[in-house]
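Students often ask what a holo structure prediction actually looks like on paper. The answer is less mysterious than it sounds. You provide the chain, you provide the ligand, and the output is a string of discrete structure tokens encoding the 3D arrangement of the protein together with pyridoxal-5'-phosphate.
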Amino acid sequence: MTGVTKATLGSPGIVDAWLHAGIDGLGDSRIENLEKIRQTEAPTSLTLIRSPMLSQAERVVAHTDVSFNTELDVMSALSSAAKKQDRIHGIVLMIELGDLREGIMPALIEKTVLEVLRFPNLSFKGIGTNLACRCGVSPDGTNMGTLSTLADSIEATFGITVETVSGGNSANLTWALSGADTGRVNDLRLGEALLLGVEPLHRNPIEGLHTDAITLVAEVIESKRKPSQPWGEIAESAFGEAESSADRGTISQSILAIGRQDTDPDGLEPPTGLKILAASSDHLVIDSGNDQEPLRVGSEVSFQLNYSALLRAMTSPFISKEMQF
Ligand SMILES: *Cc1c(COP(=O)(O)O)cnc(C)c1O
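The corresponding structure tokens follow.
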């Protein structure tokens, strides 16, 4: 299990909790987060799980053990940087299995492995794939079977060991825990599942995990009785098409001091009785019901977050993070 830290900006508190819980290694898509982890944490395997930027090859080699790759130009730069730094950098080749984000087409994988083996300061560690991110393609026996077969054929062709076969992200858990034959797959990269306790395909809770380990708290800065309908000529709003809604007469409307700059308002689940009406950069407009007392100015409202809302909240400098373990 590789714990993916990107949604928390490589938060030391969460990294510590995961390492104590027995996670095997850490992965992140941003070199900045991995550099931070490398400075503060006990030695553990660090993997850059996004294809390195050519311009960051030196930093990648200096601060990570392994990176996920698909481009020979990048691997060439990694090898040169590793030579200069007197290091060996590990390579996992990502394979395209249908979701059409990163990956080498399966027919070209052996050719690429051959090239990787020729670079003096690179060490071929294995293969991986990523599904369910761009097109929502689900991990299943077929695509995971292809990954296992490719691992076997690389071993047969080159007489090497494919150490890592990284099957995917949290979206693979349903398949991995279903009792299916997992073949050669020996690694999953998990972020959302560990943080939010849900699997991302249908957002079902995962047995034994808490789904409310993380909450977002926002403060009320205005609370008024207001008409539910705007007046004046209606054009576009700050974030595009203005939304129209049914006339509900006068409502208790509150504004919370949080907005699109801090989170994804569509990914917030308010407490029962409250409804999110709209969000702009810095304001979240809430309907607390026709008959309800308006929320008190200064009071706080807690939200459940989905992955998108979590990602933005954890990376917003305006949201303070408080952790208790
Ligand atoms: C973000 C990411 C993950 C983790 O995804 P979760 O859905 O949070 O588990 C795994 N692999 C890659 C390549 C990623 O970019």
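The chain has nine helices and 14 strands.
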